[in-house]
Design goal:
The complex is a heterodimer. By secondary structure, chain A is α/β, with parallel strands linked by helices. Chain A is built from 13 helices and 15 strands. Chain B has a single domain (17-308), classed as Rossmann fold, CATH 3.40.50.970. Classes of the chains: A alpha/beta, B alpha/beta. The interface between A and B is medium-sized, with 21 and 23 residues.
Chain lengths: 380, 310
Amino acid sequence: MPLKSLQSSFLKGTFYLSGNEASAEGAIAAGCRFYAGYPITPSSELMERMAFRLREVGGVFIQMEDEIASICAVIGASWAGAKAMTATSGPGFSLMQEAIGYAAFTETPCVIVDVQRAGPCTGQATRVGSGDMMQVKWGSHGDYQIIAFSPWSSQEMYDFTIKAFNLSEKYRVPAFVMADEAVGHLRETVRIPEKIEIWNRKKQKGIPPFGTEEADGVPPMPSFGEGERLLVTGSTHDALGYRKTDDPEVHSKLVQRINLKILNHRKEIVETEEYFLEDAEVAILSYGFTARSSLYAVKGLRKEGRRVGMMRLKTIWPFPDEKVSELGKKVRKILVPEMNLGQVAGEVKKYVTCEVISFNQTNGEIIRPEKIKEELRKIL
Amino acid sequence: MTETLNVFAVRTLTQKEYFAPGHRSCQGCGEALAVRLVLKALGRNVIIANATGCMEIVSSPLPFTSWRVPWIHVAFENTAAVASGIEAALKVLMRKGRIPKKKIVTLAMAGDGGTADIGIQALSGALERGHDFIYVCTDNEAYMNTGIQRSSSTPFGASTTTSPAGRMKMGQITWKKNMAAIAAAHNIPYVATACPSYPIDLVQKVRKAAEIPGPAYIHILSVCPTGWRSAPELSIKLGRLAVETGIFPLYEVEYGRYHLSIDFPKLKPVKEYIKLQGRFRHLTDEMIEEIQDRTQREYEILRERMKRGF
């Protein structure tokens, strides 16, 4: 491997990388210096790359005994002051859910890459699926918010991993890159810019680490050993971190804030992309690898003079409700092709009044452009 | 206790195969051989709980199955828990007369990852509760199914994709977790180590485990040519060398009493075992010396225990 002679902390230039490898490089570039993980197909290449790269940049790589241990080590590392991440796939993601709820409630920044495979349970370990789109938001109990991206290329695996780190640090929230097997194993050109923007966590001495004046604020985050009296608990806690499990006001204020701090900043977080929507009558709403097939189908039909367009969701959570509802006013029908049984289509229906057609495929294969074209022809 | 057990002779081993041929394991797979022998030893009346891993994958690709006995695969971390459920349910159904009373062996099977890493919690719980079942760990010393990542059962110095050997690091930096000792620490009736290179010894131990009431743990070294980067035709030889060099001594712990199954007055040098495997090819003489020292030391401890009897 040519990486052995590498000296700089992050690569520059053009590379031919798989999605998993690109995500690992993005993490290194974003300042991630701690990785704890457990091997699982189809995310193992990310872990293997991190095992190599973190050694070179002076970071820490630990292979843990399972996924529960992995995410918990990441939480510990984050509170010790490191930018930390882990990667997994469906079954491992299910094991992580309790700790994800903990991270959201204790406002611990961390990044989790979920390279989705066809589920449920062990499912098709080496095949593609995107059945974790709802789990990522609702997997743990209670009300909390997270940030999740859906990449469609190796390039975006790189970009979104950096973005996930930045937003995770900025809002003190677990951030997710919801890749799928096809994107994880896709090998293509990745252009790494000279300069990338990096956000480091806010620190301020003497300020309570778990509460703000504003109802939707993000408090600064001290680390262990910085001289602050730091109490971190997954029980209900006040601004200073003291357990207050029987105070209704403290609980309601805390739960409100960890939700509002994301929901009220939706505009800054959410990203979508539009194709041929100016005069479109029917639109496809797509995300992840499926969006590549969708775009191909849309372009084909445009050549035939059909008025179709496409909106691609780069951010899945918080859900881009405003943009989706605008789209719903513009077009007659929305087609949502997905590699699950209509998880995001259901969410779209909440925000639009026009007809939403869910097109599903859960056979472990990518949805081919011809199939989407066929489906579009039916509803045009 | 030993006297009341059946004496095993080679010709009592059934010719029937309960682990059918045609499965998709690699050439020279020690694990497939081990599983075949375990099932031969146990016969028809057995229910298997199998963890995620090589054996689950290679034995059951649709529309085929290699299992000629009931088989359940639940997720990765809970084989022992599933086996607990099966055993407890069989017991109560027999007590209530819903099913005929007979000896049905509950067999839990997992690899080293499913036993020493993610599955240890479920295993410890099941051993502590004292279910009457056999737990077989087929140890190929890494996560071979997902592409050779290290486990806590990977030996010191071995190169895997997550403990790579290079300029900065010489492969795995920790020593192999001693699972047999951990199982023995639960004070269960029977713990043994085995290797398919010694088939008669293996079959004998499995039968003993089935006879003894209460939990039994058998740790089987399964040579993996793919992950160990060794020639497939050397699998049996490697297994034998692992025993002869003292790297994987064969012993039993019966009601707390240690017994070495094969005791060598003089162990072979570990180098003979190490040099046949690509995963160790980066090791320097000093590191091999270190491994030699530790192997020798651990073997002595085992011998002392045998002499002492506990």
